[in-house]
Amino acid sequence: MAMRDGLIFANSLGFPRVEAESDSLTVIDYCTGQTRWWDAAAAIFAECVNVSSSIGKVKFKHCYRSSNQAAHVLANHGFCNKISSCWMGEPPGCLVPNLVDDVISV
Hints:
Layout: H1 2-12, E1 17-22, H2 25-32, H3 42-55, E2 57-62, H4 69-81, H5 96-105
Parallel strand pairs: 1-2
């Protein structure tokens, strides 16, 4: 759901090219067509593919969780609190340490 929401957000901002990263190799395989999906999440992945085709160029990329802590923290926060939010410009202060750790681990 995080991949879908991110793609929808990028599309709403009019980005013609997007690099979409996930620490879930399954999500990347499904979104790139490497694996066919026939489970309960099929509709979500179908929407990812649909939205990515309307963006233009989307590069799906797997990254390890050790270099993706900020995304993990945000997804977990949104899931646990049942909220969705976005910001432009400076990231929330509580996220900065995770962003620094992600950059250092790359």
